[in-house]
Amino acid sequence: MNEPHAVEMRRICKQFGALVANDNIDFAAKPGEVHALLGENGAGKSTLMSMLSGVYRPTSGEILIRGRSVNIRSPKDALALGIGMVFQQFRLVHTLTAAENIVLGEKSSVWRGASWMRRKTEEIGAVAERFGLKIPVERPVWQLSVGEQQRVEIVKVLYRGADLILLDEPTSVLTPGEADQLFEMLRQLRDAGKTVILTTHKLREVMEIADRISVMRKGRMVGTMNRYETNERELAQLMVGRAPAGVMRPAGRPPGKPLLEAEGLTVEAGKGRTAVRDLSLTVREGEIVGIAGVAGNGQSELAEVLAGLRPWRGGTIRVCGREWKWASVRTAIESGISHVPENRMKSGMAGSLGIVDNLLLKTYRHPERSRFGMLRSRRNRAWARSLVERFDVKAAGLDTPVRQLSGGNQQKLLFAREVDRDPKLMIAVHPTQGLDIGAAESVHRLLLELRAAGRGVLLISEDLDEVMQLSDRMLVMFGGTIVGEMSRENADRERIGLYMAGLQDAPGEEAS
Amino acid sequence: MLWIIPLLVVLAACGSGGSGGSGGSGGNSGGPASTGSPSSGESGGGDSAAAPGEEASGKPSVAFVYIGTPGDGGWTYEHDQGRKYMEEVHGIKATVVENVPESADAERIIEELAQNHDIVITTSFGYMDQTLSVAQRYPDVVFLHCGGYKTADNMTNYFGKNYEASYLTGIAAGKMTKSNIIGYVGAFPIPEVIYNINAFKLGIESVNPDAVVHVVWSNTWYDPTVERQAAISLLDLGADVLLAYQDSPATIQAAAERGALAGGNDSDMTRFAPEAYLTNPTWNWGPYYAQAVQEVMDGTWTNEPVSGSMGDGMVGLAPLGPSIPDDVKELVESAKEQILNGAFDVFKGPLVDQEGTLRVEEGRVLTLEEILEMNWFLKGIEGKIPQ
Amino acid sequence: MNGKAAAAGMDGDAGSARRRPAVPRLRFEFDPVRTGSPWWMPLAAVFAALAVCAVFIAAGGTDPLAVYKKMLTGAFGTRFGLTETLVKAIPLLLCGIGVSIAYRISFWNIGAEGQFLAGAMAATAVTIYMPDLPAVLALPLMTAAGIAAGGLWGLLTALPRAYFQVNELISSLMLNYIALLLLDYVVFGPWRDPGGLNFPGSPMFTADQSLPAFGSTRLHFGLVFALAAALLYAFTFRHTRWGYELRLIGANPEAARNAGISLNKHLLLVMLASGGLAGLAGMAEVSGVAHRLMYGISPGYGYTAIIVAWIARLHPVGLIVSAFLFGGLIVGGYSVQTLGLPSATSEMLQGAVLFFLIAGAAFGMIRIRRVR
């Protein structure tokens, strides 16, 4: 092993404000291997890749390419070093052909006649041929399937001379068949001497394609191993980590009446995809029910249905014993359901409006807040001020655009709005995503307070620690349905990891 | 944004200080700073308008309202030539406002001019109602409106019998067409255009009874793009001679590209496409303007409408184009002689309209009033007047 | 993912580097919703425009200060000029408020011109088909017809957008041309003044069909409409529930959906109001100023109103001021010609003022920050 590593990252740290995305990471990939970077969403994989591709620059640490220390300041620098990145969202111009997309941005030639384009098309065809990538170079991109578009992206980085190919969640957009084809191509690339690094959170894929595997958790590197030396069980364990010390969680009263009862719920997600299938769950007064699972297994759609934002196709929903006929946000609001959406600034708040307006979002129709079609401005301001104080939101003033608040204060404000309505049931989706530890803790405290007050909470999170810390009962979602359920006492991190990976199908039978 | 107003006011103060010394023509702006009475409006022109410079000479101040710019080489150009002639004769300088749309804006501009001028000349048909409206409020100002039919005690209208020249143009067109299809691009379906088309047709008929005239309306006085489109549609019909009652030479240029002949309106347009040029009626307003101003000075002005003719020179015919053969030129010349002698009337019965109805009996000559209200096409003209 | 989301939330710190450059670099960031443009920006813009034009005017041999003074007195300095400026400001303000309402919810209505014409035609229809109504009936009926027609014309843009995702920029622009052709048809055809010798225009309105004017000026009752509309606009957005809903939709439609607000319903209501105001402007123009429907009734009020709204940043007071200033720019621009300058001078002045105002406003949305 005297050959230098194709890429080596030493003691890499990356901070975004107070948030540490990458904490002292050591990482290395050998030439001619497929190296998988495994971890949950938010573990810091993409951040690490982005520093290799020149999108971000490390806060501290050193990057070596083929044994030489380098300073990657931009994607252009990265390309010059032979690093090419295939992003999760493709960067293709849909009206241009594959070949035109690939030569786009090339600066070497001023004159671009038909013969120039023909020559380029031939070159591209040759590159694709060499690596066994069949792409229709002369068809416009919009006519290509997703798998073909991805291949165009790969050919693009190869054509630009990349030796080190980074793929960020390459299978997230592909069908299983397309994924198999992709793996076949990646093997051919490896056999041709290229180094391939891909990020994923899917254990099955890792075992199928990777030569070596590095596992990340919460911004740290927890281990690197050869595929033949490990198994999915070990990887799942590494990925979700050991249970940390429990936080202050007072014992609750025994759960009361059911607040939310969903039976046989089936939800379409457009384009004929079934996002939620035959899902049943119950949330009672005074309990927190956590739903764990890897993103994209139907959690978002479930939350949207329960918030009244999305219609469902089959099954029944009962809230406080009353059956819902159709989905409407008004019904959800009037049934006493609070919703902390998964991306607060995208759908929960209006960033350019002030604090008062954002607090009014769910309650402005109430006679307390508006009368005769008129907002009761003075009263509303006083109310907003009291909420800001009660929930300790730090802001310059009541009219400060909420966009200017920190993430933690935004989330506090959102909770202030949702909690103040004295909801019967709160649906909280990724409530601490992007928050620092302090802010996350205050969110956790608020959820526990709701529970103590006899309200129900449905907590949907990708952060297993969070789910385990807070929940009275835990459900694991995979493939649009509940694959595992266990009480707090019987929670087993390792089993949850397997459920999350879809490796254990039989639902757990523990009674709660 | 509010500070723009104070700024402008401050600026105005500076401006009045600065220009006070330079004096000049800026003097007749009736601003509050200079005259002390913000609205010299009510009683209007006469006394308050005679700004110091003109009062001394005893000459009236004159203002012109133009629909376009003199640079159009057509309608407005000829009025501007007339203004210059008038200025030279009387040694005065007139105020000009150009590019005034025939909309509610025109009324404001006419009124603004009426506040400090003795004579306001509005040079487009579409200014008629606005001119009348202002004339009623400014009884001491004289208004001359071109091409209309409404008058007031202090407002008259003036125009020329350009149909005489249209008739002569028709003679040339009738001789020159080979396809016997002649195209006409008309601005608006108003009497002024209609009687010119009819006169043109009569001229054609006198030498070539088989030729048909196709009319297309452009609904604009000046829009080269639209005029060109209209001309091309006529050429596509097979027309080999075109005439345009428009202010731009677009029709002549379109005809030149297809090897056809064409004429325009208002001015001699030979220079735009010499080989393709036929001829067309032209205007010469100068003598009338000079005379009207003289009459106002002498106190002999009346609101009697003025209708010039080829005889008095207000209407002319542009020289026939270089590609027109001599025999045609001679034919046109002899017809012109007859008109100048007063021995010929263009609109003389029998005249039959498109539907075949006899509009003017054998031997009867249309009065000027009848001509100015003409609202029908002669037989042999293809095209519709919207009713 | 987490890291990326956090990066976006941290407002640009992602660009910070390990080594700080010795000289602080400046970076320009575009922030279209930034409100606090420096107060002197419009001032500087007007000064810059005047200075640039002064050079050209002086080069043409005229004293630029005399020209500016003339322009100013022509537009604002006399009672006549002031009332005429207000006459011009009325349709600009009404249309400006109309488009502002739509822009508040990010609906890019550029069809105010067509809505204006629809309103003008509907008001005229009342005079054509019910010529003998007394003023107390004719004027309210004309007003209602103008508002309704403008609103319906606006709805023609909103409906396809709400139910078929048709881009409103294109549909509203196209509808302008349709309205213009419709106007051509009625003034050349069925509504043409029988006594007008084929001139494209409806018969003159009677006194009963004309909005009352103030004194002997042309300033008409439409001013009350315009100011009332501005007041209502300000009040609605500040104090009413509907205004709150619209503000929410404008700021974040996703969040509005989360609050249980129907976007399509509000889209239709907004375009009814937006078109209705432009239609009211059309009614006021035919009934208050032109006293007839005619070819070329609008010198592009609907388009100028977009600029008026843009410069005012949709703010009610800003709308009043910018409509007034644009009215003055048009009126004063013609006055300048009486100094013997060609019409191009006033066009240059108007163009330059506009250019610098827009440049200034755009510059106001750019924040300069030091790159650390």
Automatic annotation (TrEMBL), chain A:
Keyword DNA damage on entry? no
Pfam families recorded? ABC_tran (PF00005)
Q: Does the keyword Thylakoid apply?
A: no
Q: Which residues form the ABC transporter domain?
A: 7-243, 260-504
Which CDD domains does UniProt cross-reference here? ABC_Carb_Monos_I, ABC_Carb_Monos_II
Q: Which controlled-vocabulary keywords does the entry list?
A: ATP-binding, Nucleotide-binding, Repeat, Transport
What species was this sequence derived from?
Answer: Thermobacillus xylanilyticus
- Designated gene of the protein: txxe 1114-yufO
Q: Which GO terms describe its molecular function?
A: ATP binding
Question: Which InterPro entries does the record match to this protein?
Answer: AAA+_ATPase, ABC_carbohydrate_import_ATPase, ABC_transporter-like_ATP-bd, ABC_transporter-like_CS, P-loop_NTPase
Can you tell which superkingdom this protein's organism belongs to? Bacteria
Q: Which PANTHER family match?
A: CARBOHYDRATE TRANSPORT ATP-BINDING PROTEIN MG119-RELATED (PTHR43790), GALACTOFURANOSE TRANSPORTER ATP-BINDING PROTEIN YTFR (PTHR43790:SF9)
This one is known as Uncharacterized ABC transporter ATP-binding protein YufO
- UniProt xrefs under SUPFAM superfamilies: P-loop containing nucleoside triphosphate hydrolases
From TrEMBL, chain B:
Carries keyword NADP?
no
Keyword Lipoprotein found = yes
Question: Locations of Low complexity compositional bias?
Answer: 31-41
Q: Record's InterPro entries?
A: ABC-Purine-Binding, Peripla_BP_I, PnrA-like
User: Could you tell me where the Gly residues compositional bias lies?
Assistant: 19-30
Fetch the Pfam families from UniProt: Bmp
Region of interest: Disordered:
19-57
Write out the coiled-coil annotation as residue ranges.
Answer: none
List, for all copies, the residue spans of the domain called ABC transporter substrate-binding protein PnrA-like: 60-339
Q: Which residues cross the membrane?
A: none
- What are the protein's UniProt keywords? Lipoprotein, Signal
Question: What is the official name of this protein in its record?
Answer: Basic membrane lipoprotein
TrEMBL record, chain C:
Membrane-topology annotation of the record: Multi-pass membrane protein
InterPro entries in the record, alphabetically? ABC_transp_permease
What organism is the protein native to? Answer: Thermobacillus xylanilyticus
Name of the featured protein: Inner-membrane translocator
Residues passing through the membrane, by range = 39-60, 80-103, 110-130, 136-157, 169-188, 219-237, 267-287, 293-312, 319-336, 348-366
Q: Where in or outside the cell is it found?
A: Cell membrane
Q: Which UniProt keywords apply?
A: Cell membrane, Membrane, Transmembrane, Transmembrane helix
**Gene transcribed to yield this protein:** txxe 1116
Q: Which Pfam families match?
A: BPD_transp_2
Reading the lineage from the top rank, the first entry is: Bacteria
Q: What is its main location?
A: membrane
